[in-house]
Amino acid sequence: MSTTVDLPEHLVSLLKTSKYVHLATASKDCIPNVSLMNYTYVLPHKAFHEEGSNSHYVIFATSKSTQKYKNIIANPSVSLLIHDWVTAKKLSLRKTSVSNTPVPDSNDSEEQPSRLLNLLQELNQSELSQMSATLSGTATVIDPSSEESDYYEKQLLRVNPDANCYIKGDDNVIIKVKILDAKISDSENRTSYYT
């Protein structure tokens, strides 16, 4: 299997803008586990101290007590699923959103739209695309006391400010997934492979 993969621009764009990715891990006995994860995508030239590398990474954090962590320690081969069933330039639930606007009380004189209302309004103006991508990769646990861990933690917090409790903590570690290949399918059942 190739050590670097050339990802198409539409997949890179999706990785940069989506809020969540589904992470599939398996134990040493091949028992699967799937988790919905906040993440950040790292382009080759933005990777920690990897000059000249063409590797793409997905970075996330997890507690050492989770099944996904135990699986990654036993079996570092992982799979990621990401999709753009609905896309919009400024969709409320995207990474750039830090809104925690509550649903207004009936006593409020100045009505504020809820996050759900914002989302529904933006969905009406959204462009439907319907692409999904399955990425295969190798996961590495980053030493929590390293500069690399600090580097990626800051990136995770910058793009996921509402996920602080999943990223910071004495028991949490940063996981780096090196993308090895990708399979992209669209709503017309056309599939493309990138290795």
TrEMBL record:
Query: What InterPro entries does UniProt report for this protein, alphabetically?
Result: PMP_oxidase-like, Pyridox_Oxase_N, Split_barrel_FMN-bd
Task: Give the SUPFAM superfamilies listed for this entry.
Answer: FMN-binding split barrel (SSF50475)
Q: Which GO terms describe its cellular component?
A: cytoplasm; nucleus
Q: Where is the Pyridoxamine 5'-phosphate oxidase N-terminal domain?
A: 7-152
Pfam (any one) = PNPOx_N
Domain of life assignment: Eukaryota
Q: What is this protein called?
A: KLLA0B10824p
Native organism: Kluyveromyces lactis (strain ATCC 8585 / CBS 2359 / DSM 70799 / NBRC 1267 / NRRL Y-1140 / WM37) (Yeast)
